[in-house]
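step: validate -> pass
step: tokenize input -> pass
step: predict -> running
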Amino acid sequence: NSQKMIPLLPRKQLPKTKSRYSKTQEKGEETNKDPVSREGIKRMLLKTREKHPIGSMETYSGPVGTSARSEFFDSYKQLNKLSQRNRYEKLEDSPNVAYLEEIKKQKLQPKPFGIIKRNGPEESIDLHLYSIGDSYASAFSYGLKHCRDIKSINLKSNRLTERGSKTILQNLEGQSIKNIILAENKIGTKSTEYVISMLENPKSSLKYLNLENTGIGDNSVIKLIDVLSENTTLKKLNLARNNLSDKCSRSLKELLKFNSTLRKLDLHWNTIRGWGAINFFEGLYENDNLQELDISWNAIGKNNDLEVAQTIAKALKSHKNLQHLDMSFNYLVKNECLAIAEGLKENKTLLGIHMLGNECTVDSKGFVIEVSGAPRVEQGHFFRRIIEKPNYKCKSEIVNCWVCENWVEMNFKWTPGTSGDAKSHPIFLHLECDNWEPELMKETPEGTFELTRAVPPGRVKFFFSQETSPMKSKEFKVQKLTLPLSRQLHYWEGCQAEVKMKSVNVAKSTGVRCDMQSPFSTKPRTPSLVYNPPELELERIPWNIPVSLFKDYKFDDDKHLNNCFEFDWKYSRLTNLIKNEEDQNNVKELLRSHYKYFRETYRNIAALSGLEYIAIGGNDLKDFLANCNLFDSYYAISDLGVNWNSCIVPKEKGQVYNSGSALCRYEFMEILVRICSDRYVRNKLCNTVTEGLQIMLQEHLIPFMQNYSSNKWRMEKYLCENVDLVLKCHKQILESVYKKYSGKKAMPGQKPFMSLDEFKSLCNDANIINDQFTSREVDLSFHLSMMTRVDELYSKKHIEMSFVEFLEAISRACDYANLPAEIISEEEGPPVANENLPLWKKIENAMPRLLKICPTYIQDNFVFPTAQTYHKMMYRSPVNS
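step: predict -> pass
step: emit ->
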């Protein structure tokens, strides 16, 4: 009760305050009785535009870049305020706001696809593979309605149906759009009608229409084509994979006949065949403007109707502007392909043709040629189209299309003296893209040989040939082939030759690239120049030993054998064994007359001793005597020991190359005479050594010694023209191998020679050792090839192999080994050795193995001879008398 009460005052008597919440005004100001006046709203909205300068077309900065992305999300955050502001101020919504408002109505997630993008032109919208569906398509169309100057829209693979695609197309009205891609959507009839209406518009600027795999069908296409026949803007049309049939072929014919602006037409994977194909290509025959056509996978030849192929040939023969054509996988059989090929021969403007999946192929010059074998589906261009290029990387495979593969016009030149020694006509060029087939080069007034060809981009492999002799240019790099080339090539009429190459020239293709807008001067399907050799009767070049590689070999003659015999007689102890002078002289003459048998037998048996200095060991001698049937009751094996000990000790000291533990040449002759003495004279079967020796020679020794004749092989197989030619043609290999494997045991200043160990290393490294050619045959090949030397006691020339002896040794090795021809490709199958092959062929078969152990520069540059090479060495033009 004692609290002081504050009296209540009227409102007018309250003191003035400066509170921010005070509604009082200064005295004299008029009070606004309407709290929501027009001026107040205006001030509020002006502040909103200052604070949020987005959301309307006045401030729309475009759909590209990070700022566009930020604007999109800011618009989403302030969507309500921006929408109210635009309505109050009657501002046009930006594409962001229009799109987001529709998203909000349909309760969808605010995905920015189509409305903003990171990069690219502002007038282009690319939504391919976004799978937006019809719901987002509706929202997107509202945003699209507010976009300006859209030139291109790509809606490929977006799960659109007729409803979604129609909504988008409706909102494209009024746009000067040039490209529309609706591929991989089921757009339906209504959407097609909107496209048709756009094309009917006189102001239409549409240049590219892609309706691939949209399921529009024949009826819709017929309506579309009826409009396109009068259209003057569309340049590129894709109607692929729509199951179009012959029903629409007449309309397609009218399109090709009357439309003057269409440049590219894609109809792959439809069912245009039979009379439908005839209609289509009749229209193409009357067309002068189409540049690219894809009509692959249409089963054009399914009905095996030659009339279809003839109509195609007629159209392609006359068309002057078509530059790129794909007719892959159309069931075209051989006779149909040949008909088309004939029509194409006169067409010099069609730069790229695809014919995979038919019974033909296209070569590097653009000719259609027949091919055997069933086509492989994986080679088709279904995944590598000629018009609609995929973004993914396709399998790389040369199809000889100048356009797709960007072929290059390249000039090849052979300059005599600079490129190589060849300087006379004809010179041929062999390109890998031609399967190495020769093409005649043109001789210029300056004396060079040139040829301009279209080649694939990148590294080009090639070589040259003069007549049929292959050669490589010194002006280009050389590259070793992964698989050696061995192929029968056709040079001119009546002339074919086998070419073998392990390395070829390689160069980077340089020149003008193939461009449809400005094609290079090289024309497709240009026939090659033809070489007509002069009609000359060639004469045979005489052949004999003095002009051969065998000329330096010293063959055994009577004089040389007599010198060898006198040397052996001198160092033997036979003069001490035979006391009677007359008997001694008779034995000497008898041995002299049969000395060649002793020498041949000694060389053959001693070669198997395995010793560095050849000699006959005890076991080898016993085997020889047993084969001669000399062991019996008159002469036992135990008797041999006495004779062995009598011969094994050298008569004189200093015989460096007499092993002392085995029989050298003169000791072999001596021990046979001692055996004769013991067998016949000691047992009183004969009175003189001469009589016993005659009997032993005729009944025991000569019949078996006749089997040992190195000279027989030499005369029957080795010393002939064919072997000489093969050795001459491969002389570079043989000289290189001999040089590499000789000289290790030569003294300083001494001429290099090849030892037995070095020859063994060569055979091992060259991989010519096999079941027929073992270490035993290696020793025989080496020693039987050596020339007979008089002195084999103080000189070692008889084990130092010269080059001419090496030629015989390696030939013997090839004869023993009997190697098959080298494997060139898996298609040839496994090689098979033939025992009946002549020696020259066996040597030729072994040369690739010897080449592998040559220095790299020889491997890269050596050119194997051909039949024509041998022919040129055997024949010549007649010599004027």
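step: describe -> Confidence is low (pLDDT under 50) at residues 20-35, 824-832.
step: cleanup -> pass
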